[in-house]
From TrEMBL:
This is EAL domain-containing protein. Signal peptide: none annotated. The keyword Transmembrane applies. The chain holds residues 365 to 642 of 642 of the full protein. Residues 24-273 form the EAL domain. Keywords: Membrane, Transmembrane, Transmembrane helix.
Length: 278
């Protein structure tokens, strides 16, 4: 009602805002009482080499289906889990599931898992992650942990300690959503970073020469720092052609495949004997 009466006014804003808060509270309450083991699942999205289209790795993406709320996206529930202190527990549940899928994948494929800033700065969570890797029996070098710049910059020294510990174990570290934060590259060479994931905003408006130049500059930067460069959000043949021409290493996006239920991808890959059978 407020919307119809006064679009864009303070009334409209506060009504929207209030309903958003109410929804967040409902989601938080559901998250607190949910059977997370049963309701959380992992989708996998292929990441493929630009050069020959072979499968490089898969990214684990969390999915939540709740009996009352239906399906809730990670952009929503991860933020709520972070705010309400549930993230560390959630991370452990998701990470164990992801490791389980990794164990079923062909040996030459790695798995990327997203860590929250709150995981990185929580010593107990980092130790649990290390313990879960050991228990799983998978080679640590088949694991990539994705961190955003914002997560790393929030508490650089704590982040560095955690990253060093994981890196010494053999785990690869990726900088996720690169280009959305302050992109302060002065710290990159001081941290154990192996890969950079260019945010999908880089892929927008590539018809525009200055956007194309930006992609080229970002890829060159990765090359000069000897970091593997992965482009996110690749949806079109034009975007893919651009990545080929600038020498980007790998890409991820709907142009190749959407995220799919982990079991489906594992079944496809084991049937196709290691080649991507999508
Ligand atoms: P992200 O790590 O940057 O993951 C990539 C997101 O881009 C995924 O959204 C994926 O579905 C989407 N995407 C992939 N290809 C394309 C494309 O071609 N076009 C477009 N428009 N989108 C594409 P999703 O699955 O909704 O996840 C959103 C974010 O939620 C992730 O962004 C990540 O930050 C967070 N997230 C997901 N799973 C987890 C998790 O297990 N733990 C934590 N801490 N965060 C997670
Ligand atoms: Mg990611
Ligand atoms: Mg990303
Ligand atoms: Mg993102």
């Amino acid at each position: 009602r407020a919307k119809a009466e006064a679009p864009g006014s303070a009334v409209y804003y506060s009504a929207e805002h209030e309903s958003e808060i109410r929804q967040d509270r409902a989601t938080e309450a559901a998250l607190r009482t949910a059977d997370l083991e049963a309701e959380m699942t992992v989708h996998l999205q292929p990441i493929v080499w630009v050069k020959d289209g072979s499968l490089k790795s898969v990214e684990a993406l969390a999915r939540w289906t709740n009996p009352e709320l239906g399906s809730v996206g990670p952009d929503v529930f991860i933020a709520i889990a972070e705010r309400s202190g549930l993230i560390n527990r959630l991370t452990k549940i998701l990470f164990r599931k992801a490791l389980h899928h990794l164990a079923d994948l062909p040996e030459d494929i790695s798995l990327s898992f997203n860590l929250s800033a709150y995981d990185l700065t929580n010593h107990e969570t980092i130790l649990s992650i290390v313990a879960l890797i050991r228990q799983s029996g998978v080679r640590p070098d088949r694991l990539i942990l994705e961190l955003t710049e914002t997560a790393v910059m929030q508490d650089l020294e704590t982040a560095r300690t955690a990253m060093d510990l994981l890196h010494r174990l053999g785990v690869c570290i990726a900088l996720d959503d690169f280009g959305t934060g302050q992109s302060n590259l002065s710290y990159v060479h001081k941290l154990p970073i192996d890969l950079v994931k260019l945010d999908r905003s880089f892929m927008a408006n590539i018809d525009d020469p200055s956007s194309r130049n930006l992609v080229c500059a970002a890829v060159s930067l990765c090359q000069s720092l000897e970091l593997t460069c992965i482009a996110e959000g690749v949806e079109t043949a034009e975007q893919f052609a651009l990545l080929q021409s600038v020498g980007c290493d790998a890409y991820q996006g709907y142009y190749f495949s959407k995220p799919v239920p982990a079991a489906d991808l594992v079944a496809d890959l084991t049937q196709a004997n290691g080649s991507v059978g999508l």
